[in-house]
């Protein structure tokens, strides 16, 4: 429980946490950012990680010369593209049966309601989902998985994957770079992080509650 609270504290105050980490560990901060973005986009059980907030705050630190802007952008682009690619191949490996059968490991961690909504969105918008989803928490994590499940060709997937990663990373990092150190924004940065986390966690929580209510109604 203490570890969970420490993790939540780290995420909620990620602007201060990153500053302390940079002071203590220097360039290792790039590895941490890579890992967080990769896990959020590459592992379907981590949709709650604060990708948007992290990119924005990273850009703000680059503006204050505590991080290198070009290294940050390059690293995050690789993490975003590689994460989505891994997620896509997981979807390809599992296949359509994920919607039809109960896989014990997935059932424990997977938000099936969010997965189904992403699948419906994908059916409507096709490959554009991979680009649009970059800006939608939770959907961002499930979109490449659904593309793999739906057997989108790898070449077509990578086209949308790279396009989406470029737009997402460049936009949010540069927004942080140019606006992240404005006093008003710095003062309310925790609120921005909370909103980003809430946008990711609330749908997952609603899905979990919905699943529990269905189980109770069947009991």
Short descriptors:
mainly alpha, 13 helices, elongated
What is the structure about, briefly put?
It is found in: Cell membrane. The protein has 219 residues and is mainly alpha-helical.
Give the beta-strand count. Answer: 0
Number of domain modules? 1
Strand content: under 5%
Order of helices and strands: HHHHHHHHHHHHH
Largest beta sheet, briefly? none
Low-confidence stretches: none
Indicate the mean pLDDT.
76
Question: What is the overall silhouette?
Answer: elongated
Fraction of residues in helix: over 70%
Describe the protein:
Its main location: membrane. Belongs to the DedA family. It is a multi-pass membrane protein. This protein has 219 residues and is an all-alpha fold. The protein has one domain. Helix content is 81%, strand content 0%. It contains 13 helices and no strands. Helix 2 crosses helix 4, helix 4 runs antiparallel to helix 13 and helix 5 packs across helix 10. It is elongated. The model has no long low-confidence stretch (mean pLDDT 76).
SSE order and pairing:
Layout: H1 2-12, H2 14-25, H3 28-42, H4 51-63, H5 69-94, H6 97-100, H7 104-109, H8 112-125, H9 128-132, H10 139-149, H11 154-179, H12 183-187, H13 189-218
Helix pairs in contact: 2-4, 3-5, 4-11, 4-13, 5-10, 5-11, 8-10
């Amino acid at each position: 429980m203490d570890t969970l609270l420490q993790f939540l504290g780290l995420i909620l105050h990620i602007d201060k946490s990153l500053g302390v980490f940079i002071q203590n560990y220097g360039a290792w901060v790039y590895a941490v950012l890579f890992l967080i973005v990769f896990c959020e986009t590459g592992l379907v059980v981590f949709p709650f990680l604060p990708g948007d907030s992290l990119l924005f705050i990273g850009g703000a630190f680059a503006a204050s010369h505590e991080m290198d802007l070009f290294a940050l952008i390059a690293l995050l682009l690789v993490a975003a593209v590689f994460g989505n690619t891994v997620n896509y191949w997981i979807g390809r490996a599992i296949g359509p049966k994920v919607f039809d059968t109960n896989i014990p490991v997935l059932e424990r961690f997977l938000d099936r309601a969010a997965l189904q909504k992403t699948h419906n969105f994908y059916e409507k918008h096709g490959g554009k989902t991979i680009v649009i989803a970059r800006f939608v928490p939770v959907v961002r994590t499930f979109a490449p998985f659904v593309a793999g499940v739906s057997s989108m060709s790898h070449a077509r997937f990578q086209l949308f994957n790279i396009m989406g990663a470029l737009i997402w990373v460049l936009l949010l990092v540069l927004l942080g770079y140019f606006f992240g150190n404005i006093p008003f924004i710095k003062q309310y940065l925790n609120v921005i992080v909370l909103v980003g986390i809430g946008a990711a966690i609330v749908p997952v929580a609603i899905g979990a509650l919905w699943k529990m209510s269905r189980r109770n109604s069947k009991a």
